[in-house]
Batch of 4 targets.
Target 1
Amino acid sequence: MKMYRFSLVIALFFAVFQLQAQDITTGLRSLDVEKFEEAKAFFQARINSEPLNSINYYLAGEAALRSGKTEEAKQIFSKGIGAVNNSLTNAATGAYIGENGDADGARKFYAAAMTMAEKEKDNVVLQYTARAMSSFEVKNLEGALILINRVIAADKKNVNAEAHFLLACIYLEMGEGGKAVSEFEKTAELDKTTAKPFWKLGYLYTRSRNTREALPNFEKAITIDAGLAPIYRDMGDLYFQMNQTSKAIESYKKYLSMIDKSIDAQIRYASFLVTNKDYKNAYIESKEIEKAGTDNVYLYRMLGYSACEIDSVNEGVTAMEKFMSKVAPAKIRTGDYEYMGKLQLKSGKDAEADAAFKKAIEMDSTLAIELYSYVAEYHFKGRAYAKAAAAYEQLLVIKTSNNLTDYFNQGRSYYNIQQYGKADTCFAKLIEGSPNYVPAYIYRGRCNQSFEKRPDEGKAKPYFDKVIELATDPVKYKRDLIEANRYIGFHYYYKNDKAQAKAFFTKVLELDPNDKDTKAAMANLK
């Protein structure tokens, strides 16, 4: 028994010794390839053996956070800041709080991290602090930039490729594409074994819609490291951009086959499909996830969006209501209100739709024209002309250019509800912008004809004259020319100008020999 206990002690000693001797490369690799459970287990083990190493807490928490396990991340980060109160554990706590919807709280912890970093000298810790502040939803990119530049400046031998990679990622987040490219290239120069800079260059060029540069970089990344799973996810986006749908889905499914099997990964796939407008498959994927069961509220966002696009309206409303009632208010996006508005509109709940659209516009005022256009077009296509006319009225207050189609549809909406005066005003504005547009004159003729008290009054004649002047192609404008010549013919008929009436009736019958009204009028002229 004593020998057994002694052997066990020796075994445990060597296990701990080997763990401490390991560097963190294994765990970082698990994070890079999105094996988050492996990464978390690796760094949790290191926490047990090195309870005062803040990097272990951060990376274990990052693994939990990136896999959607926010409560688990909270526990890890809380334990970390309790054990080591430094820039990294404060930045990590800020990252968690930001992911949980509290942007102001996150910024307070980031500010504390920056204050602590001023006195800290451990460049590895500072590098991870920069990573924590630049990798999640609420960021402090300016602070991260200061810290990573400080780390690089201290790297006298210029061998820290990972620092240059992080600097490139920060520039990418800041919209500094040129600087990001330079730093990714620097990373590749310093470490020829890593595929990450080529992967990110592929992502950068995909985002800027430069497909010619994107694909070769992804292919180069795969040549170096075919096991780097996120390459295939981002290649999927590129293939969708190139309208190669089957390749896009194949690429994303390869990505899913390589990472942790989880509901969160499936939800990311559904999100990928929604982003790339493959709504039918996004809906199918979302329904399968729902059937499997999950407490991940973001499923209902994907289900709501995709259900809206395939016109499963009631299901979409239910999904969006469930999502918006459960998610933290700070996590609600402009698109959530936009889709809720569209679903309410399709449900016939105009007031609720209007309220949702107004919330979307409050969050992003540049959406106003797009959303009011959507409402107007929706009602117009649905032949709800009174609602369409009102929506176009609202739209044209803010849309002061490129609006001729809107005036035309607004005019037709008013015309169809017999508000001929308002319709005529719309067509007049259309003619101001497009003086040779034949349909506008046809409608002005019809509107003004409705104002006539006597058939020989001729209020519509100037507009039908203009139709005949502009409509020089009798095949393209056959119906318009028949209508214009018939009106003018009857105008002269009732003025008892038989010669003129006969001339215009003859033109009608040349276009349509079977026009009964015109034939009857011609017979009366003999």
Note: The chain is about 75% helix and 0% strand.
Target 2
Amino acid sequence: MIGDVFVASFSKSMVLDAYSEYVNNFSTAMAVVRKTCASKSGFLEFLKHRQESSSDRMTLYGLMMKPIQRFPQFILLLQDMLKNTPVGHADRLPLQMALTELETLAEK
């Protein structure tokens, strides 16, 4: 069942701890990137070259934002799945549990 997959993924403390650390350190990491870009022209040129040569042309900031944007997307997906999962269906409780885990994490 799909609900069980979500519960297994989001109830593991390793995943939640890693995500929390990532979010909590995001501002610091971005400050380091900005400082390094300002002080090391080679680093800035490297980032520009990587962006220009990648198929999606995504910036480092854009890449670093993806994990932060992912959890709200999962929350919306789970909410939509719950709307379309009948009461009494075997997936309903696991989906609700996964949604609760994600919403709790998003509040931190």
Note: The chain has a mean pLDDT of 89.
Target 3
Amino acid sequence: MEPKPEQAAAQSEELPHVLVFPAPYHGHATPLFSLAAALATHGLHITILVLPCLPSLSAFMASASSRLLPISFLSLPAPAPAPAPHSPDLHTIIHSLSLLSDPIRRLILDLPSPPTALISDMFLGFTEPLARSFSIPRFTFYPSGAYATSIFHSIWLNNPPEPTTEPTGPIEPTSSSSTITISDVPSAPSFEFGQLSGLFVRYKRAERSIPLDPAWASVRDCWLWNIESHGRVLNTFADAEGEFLSHLGPVEQAGRVWAVGPLHMLAESGTEGEGLARAEEWLKGRAEGSVVYVCFGTMASFNQDQVGAMAMSFSYGSSSTERDRK
């Protein structure tokens, strides 16, 4: 039998209390909402710090209320500039979010039940020293996989120099001079410098200026604080990325690592099993090597024409492969 609302409220005050702080982007907030709901069904009281621009919030609040989950919401002031989807100025957004530290501190001090932990998005690294000031552990939430996270950690921690394209002597540099090898990540992947995280590439450009722009300093600090967090929570699973999950734990001498994905499968209706069964049935009906898995960044967005063009290109590629086999 489901508890009554007043019973749920009373019970929530007795539960371990976890603060959850999503980043204001759909690909970041939605999976963290799913995680928050799952934690709330396993004996935790959740308080979500809410920004005015937080996507999918209304639907999640309605769902949490209808399910009588021990989830409450605290409103934060809007940062300036306000986050905009697909903004090329992500560094200024990260900086503006970091300026919310004092308002968040005041909200935490006013809570009737002190928090026992904080889970915050990877764009919110400034919450690491904030959590330490309250002597509570902070867990960094990564909405994407362990492979990318391993590379992000390496480049921000080691800060490799930007390869020069200028002659350094009598011999012109070859094209390989722009290659960066991430030697401390399993398999030591190599990339052209421009293929690295766009945020990091732009940071290296900004690093040429002295003093460093405060917004870019906030970005650098954000990632370094993420690396120092008590633990990492990733939207992935061990069968797919076990090697990189292991790397993010003991190899980096960091806190514990939790693989909690794919979080979109934590459906409320209980039909996630049916969806998984249908997906498995479909995959089993495909020939080996005939299925292409495509993954875009958490802030990617495409219109109908772009999706159609991608589908056509994959269709053409698969047809060409089939002809080659014959």
Note: The first strand starts at residue 17 and ends at 21.
Target 4
Amino acid sequence: FDPNRTSLTGHGGNLSLGRGGNSPVRINLGVTWRSPGLDLNDAGFLRQADRIMQSFWMGYRFNKPTLIFNRLNFNVNQWYGWNFDGEKVFEGGNINGGGPLRNYWYIWFGIGRESKNLSTTALRGGPALILPGQWNQWLTIETDQRKAVVFSVNGYNSWKDENDSRYHEIGLGMSVRPVKSLNVRFSPFYGINKDDLQYVSTPANNGESRYLFGRIDQRTLGLTTRIDCSITPNLSVQFYGQPFVSAGEYSQFKRITSSRAANYADRFHVLSNELTYEAASNTFLVDENLDGASDYAFGKPNFNFKQFRSNLVLRWEYSPGSTVFLVWSQGRTGFTSDGEFSFRNDVRDLFEVYPDNVFLVKLNRWFSL
């Protein structure tokens, strides 16, 4: 790292070799690399430099009815990544498959594994941190899409090694088409996130950074609603709305001490006697050397964030090729630092927030020359 440099020079590329076509077996082997000095952000978007990634995918298509499936796709994925110093930074793979059933339902499922990874972003500008490996599992089921009422359910779960961190999310869907010109879809979802290594803050102590993490217990609930109505071939109405609530409470604050230690517990020091909570300022004080004077502080990171976003659009094609749009967008956003999740109270508080309303008229006119 050279803070005096005024420019960067790097290289990157992709190589891919595969087999496709009408064969039931499809294969792809690829290599992607981005050198440490590569900077595309003036011309595009670069998520991560200093990476070399190898990937492999193989899929098999059963085009004839197989078992309970009308058609079945089965896939195997594998990936491996390292930096330009030759250090492994990530490794993983998964198997997944599914397709339409003989009763015209649909199912897709998968399970994946990711090994320990070396994260250069977890400490927000600090040294690289070894993060635990994890297992992932997902499942989607949908009823016959030809029907007037269609239901769906999808679930995702992940479990990390070593620290009892896990994430669970379930989503439901109901699509109703009472007539051909009207479609209404409701998609509620609920997620639980328990992470032992959630970033909190980077205060300084005598000019040295202290990388603080905590265990978060987070609940998230949302409901997406979409309505499409074609009143006439030239007049239609669309609505989108989503109330969203997410609340998180932090505990077990810890300071990263040895980010590359082989044992998980050796990578940090759990703050206990060093920690004092000051309710008046909603702040934690840290007395690192236990001399009776605080060495640094950080704000209590608990949160309760709620938001509602909606769009109502009327489209009228008043003349062939000429259209007018009437748009009403509404937004409500609320935030508190208590970290408590209560469905009834959160929804009530959300719709008591004063809204931001935006009205827009857009007119298109076709001129024949």
Note: The two ends are 60 Å apart (CA to CA).
